[in-house]
Design brief:
The chain has 431 residues and is mainly α. 63% of the residues lie in helices and 4% in strands. The protein is built from 21 helices and seven strands. The strands form three sheets. Strands 5-7-6 form a three-stranded antiparallel beta sheet. Helix 6 runs antiparallel to helix 7. The chain is elongated and about 85 Å long. The protein starts with 12 loop residues before the first helix and ends with a helix.
């Protein structure tokens, strides 16, 4: 029988007592986590797994013990089904009171669980419980935890992009950065992968502005300029392609990313070539660049995005025509931008009109496109509702920033730092 089916037995010594006595306060929880993060103690737990039966632990009072049992048993062969069942039961029932203290370990367990769920085709029934677990781990609304990136990745791999929006659309206002012993709860990689996966989700949903914002966040995370991460390189490459698709040019990045971007450009040769060819007068240059780098695009899994750049090229050329002409036949537009037929041009223009990219009218009888001047007054109900929504969002953001500022001013760490600076200044003045 696997370890999960064996009868429970009482462990001997202090180590065993930690798994038979409930954790009643945060101090005890911190001590337990520090103890278990010691590699020798974690190894001892793996050696004694048959003594512990996950289904018999009271998750209301012993969730931390159950978490470490699951972590220790995660890689043991031959118990996959029973482990997944125990892990899902834990995800749905754990006590969140002290779980933030072991958030990093929870993230490790969730990562293994997601892999099993994907390979076992059980993803649809598990998305809601996993999302609920992520929200329960948050100590306040908008807090980024180590679980976020794993859940967004789960949505990506299962192609359930919309399911991730309940987290992605919630602005991040704080980070779970507590440190207990040697363990940092939220590592830099957790932040990078969250924004990178989020950018991929928004790209898949064609919400390109949000995708650019998330990729930009990846590139804005402080790092050593000469040691950029693979996540940053992938985010930069997709940032270039999405910029071309949405705006027909590369969107400027914040000035403080200049040093990092210099190194990223050196690692993104094929994409720099595509960006350069995008501004060529004919589509042939872009086609040649895409063909020249097809192997690299396939390796980076960006072939689909690169193909969308070709459509974006024609859209850019049409936008340029609207600045020069008031009317133009479809056949003439096709010849100017390099499309082989008028129906293709008409379909593209209708799509651009539908998504608000251009203002135009197509006369299907005469085959002539009109580009009227923008005489909109922007005083309709939809515009006012949009403006009001933006104002409300700005007010809410201002209140949140003010609240965060007040918390910082009264925090123990800030007061100590301020006192230290004032003391140092007075000492310098005396000297």
């Amino acid at each position: 029988q696997s370890w999960v089916r064996q009868l429970p037995a009482m462990a001997e010594g202090n180590f065993g007592l930690r798994f038979t006595q409930p954790i009643m306060d945060e101090r005890a929880a911190v001590e337990f986590v520090i103890f278990m993060e010691d590699s020798s103690n974690f190894f001892q737990l793996r050696q004694n797994l048959p003594l512990f039966f996950p289904g018999q632990l009271d998750l209301a009072r012993m969730s931390l013990q159950q978490l470490y049992i699951l972590a220790a048993a995660a890689e043991i062969p031959g118990n996959r089904e029973s482990w997944v069942a125990a892990a899902m039961d834990f995800v749905q029932k754990f006590n969140s009171s002290y779980m933030h203290i072991a958030a990093k370990r929870f993230g490790d367990v969730l990562n293994v669980l997601c892999k099993h769920l994907l390979s076992g085709n059980k993803i649809m029934s598990s998305l809601k419980p996993v999302l609920a677990a992520v929200k329960r781990l948050q100590r306040n609304t908008g807090q980024l935890t180590p679980l976020h990136a794993h859940f967004i990745k789960l949505c990506l791999l299962s192609r359930q992009y919309s399911f991730a929006l309940s987290l992605l659309d919630e602005p991040v206002s704080s980070l779970l950065v507590e440190r207990h012993g040697k363990q940092q709860q939220l590592a830099a990689l957790d932040v990078l992968t969250y924004y990178y996966y989020g950018g991929l989700v928004y790209t898949g949903l064609k919400q390109f502005d949000n995708a650019l914002q998330f990729f930009s966040c990846v590139l804005s995370v402080p790092t050593h300029e000469s040691a950029v991460s693979a996540v940053a390189v992938a985010a930069y490459q997709r940032f270039l392609l999405v910029s071309l698709i949405k705006y027909g040019e590369v969107v400027p990045l914040p000035k403080y990313t200049v040093g990092v971007v210099r190194h990223l450009k050196a690692l993104s040769g094929p994409y720099n070539d595509i960006v350069s060819s995008f501004s060529a007068p004919t589509v042939a240059a872009l086609d040649q660049a895409l063909d020249r780098h097809k192997n690299a695009l396939h390796e980076h899994r960006t072939t689909g995005l690169a193909r969308q750049c070709r459509t974006a090229y024609f859209c850019r050329q049409i936008r340029l025509l609207t600045k020069t002409f008031l009317t133009l036949p479809l056949a003439d537009i096709a010849a100017r931008i390099g499309l082989p037929s008028s129906p293709l041009v008409e379909s593209l223009i209708l799509d651009m009109i539908a998504d608000g990219t251009i203002r135009a009218a197509v006369n299907q009888v005469t085959g002539v496109v009109s580009f009227p001047a923008d005489d909109a007054q922007y005083d309709d109900e939809a515009t006012m509702a949009l403006l009001n929504g933006r104002i409300q969002s700005a007010v809410a953001l201002s209140e949140r920033v003010t609240g965060m500022d007040e918390k910082v001013q009264v925090s123990q760490g800030y007061v100590k730092m301020l006192y230290s600076l004032e003391t140092s200044t007075l000492t310098d003045m005396v000297e």
